[in-house]
TrEMBL record:
Record lineage: Bacteria, Pseudomonadati, Nitrospirota, Nitrospiria, Nitrospirales
Molecular function as annotated in GO: methyltransferase activity
Record Pfam families: Methyltransf_25
Occurrences of domain Methyltransferase (ranges): 45-134
Keyword terms: Methyltransferase, Transferase
Organism for this UniProt entry: Nitrospira defluvii
Transmembrane segments: none
Protein's name in the database: Methyltransferase domain-containing protein
A GO biological process held by the record: methylation
Amino acid sequence: MDPTETGHNYDALAAWWLAQMQDSTYGVAALERALTFVEEGREALDVGCGCEGRFFRALMERHFHCTGLDISGEMIALAARRYPQAVLEVGDICSWRLPQRYDVITAWDSTFHLPLDRQESVLQKLCEGLSRRGVLLFTCGGGEERGSVRGEFGGKSFEYSSLGVPEFARLLWRFGCAIQHMEYDQYPENHVYMIAKKR
């Protein structure tokens, strides 16, 4: 699925998603674990930030300056009303240029929507976008093989792709990061989050 199509689908779901998730803490425990590996700095980027801002809340409580990127303009418009102090941009992480390096980069349930052939280059971009000893938190499908599947969410069709856990681990090391923690956090669902740190 082209990221633009993904954006249009999330535009249509934005108001519904905010109603469902505005008080959610989904993924925040993983973020809090990732923050234990942060040594210094207070610049954070959330890729696929969505509209309700649970990661923004957790980060701002710890005095991080937050930047959010999302392919959905409607998601960003809703987020801007809730978090006017955050820097929010509509964009495709495949082509978006990171304006600076970040001490924390999160991509929770976002980059797994990318086309399979863009997974490696985006992971490299995120790793290169980390500051010295910066920390990356992202989610992926938990299988061992690369591949793509389609699924339905909120009445819309989405594509999900993964390079496979072993390949993500290999690439993280190649791109200068070492895994600090990896967890199948929704067993028996095939969902993994990884925390990696700039070497």
